[in-house]
């Protein structure tokens, strides 16, 4: 999770919403990314989507059943759907996101049969630091 | 929608689940894609995500408020989330997808405040042809 927080901090420095994600396979980091939605412009460029895509390319397979995903913020519906498609084994996220989350809020993507896969979900690890990075980012832009 | 159906047929020929998507801006097609999840492996490589990403790059902006999306199948939760992030104006989809859909089924992504944007949604145009392409694809693989 520390590495995901570093990715979030890098995203903030680049003017992107500071969220970071890391994919771990067999105890090794195989993909890490922050949000990149502005440069280049990509409405799908959330940290989770980018990290999952890189991990799939790295392993040469679409399914990441043996992988864990660490992300600094509760995934939105798009990212939760991507996590289900990737068959991620364990999802660890730091801060909850009542405003935009899709795991424990809103669409609750994993709670519907249409998701086809539900990872083990662990929330809260590193939440204070993840929230602080987001709060500082939005405070500085106001 | 005819062009989206052609993208779906091309995906089938490549061994990919036959779904196609097209983004239209000012009456012009600016992006078109089928599913590409196997080669290269990408759990996020649904036609909608790919077309939205290409459209954003084409227009040089993350938000596609002036764009319409045509897709041959009801978007899943991941794609519905991507459509909300992209601020797509109108979503047209052909066949409904009770098994994996996230618009009128399951997560119903646009029905939650966490989506932040809800496009106008029109369903059914080209549904018979879209369903036939999918049915033939899966029948041939059994």
From TrEMBL, chains A, B:
The keyword Metal-binding applies. GO terms for biological process: tRNA wobble adenosine to inosine editing. Keywords: Hydrolase, Metal-binding, tRNA processing, Zinc. Residues 1-104 form the CMP/dCMP-type deaminase domain. Zn(2+) binds at residues 46, 76, 79. Its EC number is 3.5.4.33. Pfam families: MafB19-deam. Binds 1 zinc ion per subunit. PROSITE patterns: CYT_DCMP_DEAMINASES_1, CYT_DCMP_DEAMINASES_2. It catalyses: adenosine(34) in tRNA + H2O + H(+) = inosine(34) in tRNA + NH4(+). InterPro entries: APOBEC/CMP_deaminase_Zn-bd, CMP_dCMP_dom, Cytidine_deaminase-like, MafB19-deam, tRNA_aden_deaminase. Belongs to the cytidine and deoxycytidylate deaminase family. ADAT2 subfamily. Catalyzes the deamination of adenosine to inosine at the wobble position 34 of tRNA(Arg2). Homodimer. This is tRNA-specific adenosine deaminase. The gene is tadA.
């Amino acid at each position: 999770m520390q590495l995901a927080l570093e990715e979030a901090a890098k995203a903030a420095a680049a003017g992107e919403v500071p969220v970071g994600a890391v994919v771990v396979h067999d105890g090794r980091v195989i993909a890490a990314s922050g949000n990149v939605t502005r440069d280049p412009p990509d409405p799908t460029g959330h940290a989770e989507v980018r990290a999952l895509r890189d991990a799939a390319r790295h392993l040469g397979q679409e399914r990441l059943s043996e992988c864990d995903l660490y992300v600094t913020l509760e995934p939105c519906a798009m990212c939760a759907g991507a996590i289900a498609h990737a068959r991620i084994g364990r999802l660890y996220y730091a801060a909850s996101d009542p405003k935009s989350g899709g795991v424990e809020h809103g669409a609750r993507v994993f709670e519907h049969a249409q998701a086809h896969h539900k990872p083990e979900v662990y929330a809260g690890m590193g939440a204070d630091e993840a929230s602080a990075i987001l709060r500082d980012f939005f405070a500085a832009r106001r």
